[in-house]
Structure formats: C-alpha cells, structure tokens
Design a protein that fits this description.
Elements lengths: L2 H19 L5 E5 L8 E5 L3 E6 L3 E8 L3 E9 L5 H14 L3 E7 L3 E8 L2 E12 L2 E7 L7 H11 L1
Antiparallel strand pairs: 1-2, 3-4, 4-5, 5-9, 6-7, 7-8, 8-9
Length: 158
C-alpha cells in the first residue's frame, strides 16, 4: 500500500468520523417565537411544528422523520431555582418503572435509558428558565429512539 493510498483512506475515515461527531450538521437554528415560545433551537430541515394549549401549560412538538421528535412543555415558574426543577425531573425519570440508568448528566439536563422487556429506548430532559416561564424539553411521547438519536435531539435544544 502506498503512502498516497494510506492518506486517502485516512482522509475518508476522518471525514466520516467528523461528520458523525456533529449532530447539528443537518439542522438549522430556528426561532420559535412565531409559535409563542421565545426560544431558539436547532431543528432538522422540513420539521413539522405543532402547538397545543393544555390550559396550565403549552405543548410544542417538533417532528422530523422517525429519528427526531422533541416535545417542549412551557408553564409558569414555581421556582427560580433551575436545580430544583431539574432534580424533580430526575426523580420523576428514575421512578418510572422502565428506567434503567442515567447515560449523561449536565447542569441543565440529562439523558437516560429505559429498558422495556429487553428493548432499550432513550429519552432526555433539558430545562430552560426564561422570564416567568420554565421550558422542559424531552423526546416526543410516542416513539423508540436510539442513544444516538437522543444525543442529537439533546444537542439541538442546548
């Protein structure tokens, strides 16, 4: 094998790894103010955005294909302490009957695994507090998502 061939193969491998490393590469930053949510996030091209008024809270869903479905709940603040809200969501996730483990945890959110009869599914919670509202981001309520899918969704809302 020549050095030129090795460099070519290395370049292809590097390109493939670098493309996978950026889950936002196929997304565009989108302002959600036109839907009543004064926040911005990365959204896949062609995503369908729907808003539902649930009375005490607003529900915004963003769906694109089978691998991207983010749901955002907006409600009035009960506390200004984001850590309190995040801890409530963490306790709630851990108490779910199919919860199996935390994959990653950050200051504003976490990714976790659920095991439903041997089938692994992944989910996340991410918290933003803005003005007098709290925004809780998570995967859509319907679907089965891989760890890679959820990491991309999580990255898109940060």
């Amino acid at each position: 094998m020549t050095i030129r061939t090795l460099l070519y193969l290395f370049s292809i491998a590097f390109f493939m790894v670098s493309c996978k490393a950026d889950p936002l590469s196929d997304m565009k930053k989108t302002e959600l103010m036109s839907h009543g949510f004064p926040i911005a996030m990365y959204v896949p091209e062609g995503a369908i955005i729907n808003k539902t008024d649930l009375g005490v809270m607003q529900d915004l869903t963003i769906k694109a294909g089978d691998n991207y479905y983010v749901q955002i709940f907006s409600s009035d603040l009960l506390t200004l302490d984001k850590k309190v809200v995040l801890n409530e969501k963490l306790v709630e996730a851990k108490s779910h009957r199919f919860f199996s483990k935390i994959i990653s945890e950050e200051e504003d959110g976490f990714i976790f695994e659920k095991n439903v009869d041997g089938i692994l599914n992944y989910d996340f919670r991410y918290i933003k507090i803005q003005g007098d509202k709290e925004y809780v981001f998570q995967t859509g309520l319907v679907g089965n998502y891989s760890e890679e899918d959820v990491k991309a969704m999580y990255a898109s809302v940060k």
